[in-house]
Amino acid sequence: MNIHEYQGKEILRSYGVSVPVGKPAFSVEEAANVAKELDSKVIVVKAQIHAGGRGKAGGVKIAKSIDEVKNYAKELLGKVLVTKQTGPEGKKVNRLLVETGCKIKKELYLSFTVDRTTAQTVMIGSEAGGMEIEEVASSTPEKILKEYIDPFIGLAPFQARRMAFRLNIEPALVNKAAALMMGLYRVFVDKDCSLAETNPFVLTEDGNVMALDIKLNFDDSALYRHKDITELRDESEEDSKEREAAALGLNYVNLGGNVACMVNGAGLAMATVDIIKHYGGEPANFLDVGGQGSAEDDAKAFKIMTEDGQAKGIFVNIFGGINKCDIIAEGIIEANKMLDLKIPIVVRLDGTNVKEGREILRKANIPNVIMVESMTEGAKKVVELVKDA
Length: 389
Ligand code: ADP
Ligand code: MG
Prior knowledge:
Elements: H1 5-14, E1 22-25, H2 28-38, E2 43-48, E3 60-63, H3 66-76, E4 80-81, E5 91-92, E6 95-100, E7 104-115, E8 120-126, H4 133-139, E9 144-149, H5 157-166, H6 171-190, E10 193-204, E11 209-211, E12 215-218, H7 227-230, H8 240-247, E13 251-254, E14 259-263, H9 266-278, E15 283-288, H10 295-306, E16 313-320, H11 325-339, E17 345-351, H12 354-364, E18 369-372, H13 375-388
Parallel strand pairs: 14-15, 14-16, 16-17, 17-18
Antiparallel strand pairs: 1-6, 2-3, 2-6, 4-5, 7-8, 7-10, 8-9, 10-11, 10-12, 13-15
Helix pairs in contact: 2-3, 5-6, 10-11, 11-12
Bound molecules: adenosine-5'-diphosphate and magnesium ion.
């Protein structure tokens, strides 16, 4: 789960990490009121969307008067902002952050994430902050610095200071920079983040170290113990179908092609996507029905996969374990009735209750349901069928 920058800054503030003073605004009037309250010569008006790259796309405005704040707020609210991270369709701006502008001496990068190879949290720093860090990492990897963190000890103060020195932060500001790192690390651990990134954090003309931008991603599997974070959810920023699927305990991912894939388990999902590609097809999405669920849940899953009309065929690739092939078969029949599906449904069932499952489908004798014996056969078949569609 993601949250907005202003929400992230409030969390940072509560952990003693220095961030600019500011507040969210949902209207031009509110933006003007916040600006008046701030009483600062330079006010920054920032579009709040769940995507970075706003600066380069015109989503971060520097205002020198209340009138300018109003004009920028008018311009940004309701605008669809297209940044490098939003995709071509962009994201609509419904909220702003109005905050004090700071005099930046230097912009740097800092983040915490989990490194799967070492199974440790890694702190990543770079002097090349404020720009697209992915580009820095691929063209000049030597500018990316890392500190691996022992999970039992946590981020040691000497590691934070070492990072600060390696980032060539002037000695007088090393302790302030280290404090920012320690604070952000505590947020990362306490809140079960999968990513805590500040790009940029800055050294200011008046000798401060501050997080000017913050991105916090939370591990969905740990949200049950963070009610305060769950309350920050902005549903208008999320894919409505992914949300619908999540409410049913299903994982849905949109992929843009024309073959919908219904699978169980992440491994089988990847393998199914791969084999469809291998035979020249393009997956529209995959929906992982996981380990349990009723026939009605499965029918709802079909609805999510097909309702936008993008899918020209469905590949059901299920290896029954905890969830049983006969339940899936009933789900297919239920879905077909409920949704009046006209597109071909290629079904490969294996595992628990496979005989019963196949028998149910055979008896139902639905013209657009095609049963296959193997995953390979199924992939070939569905790719062939959507080509003619
Ligand atoms: P994004 O990453 O989406 O482009 P940022 O919050 O990083 O958005 O802002 C982009 C740039 O705008 C920053 O690199 C910084 O130079 C400038 N900026 C952002 N907030 C402030 C602020 N409060 N004061 C001064 N400059 C700012
Ligand atoms: Mg940024």
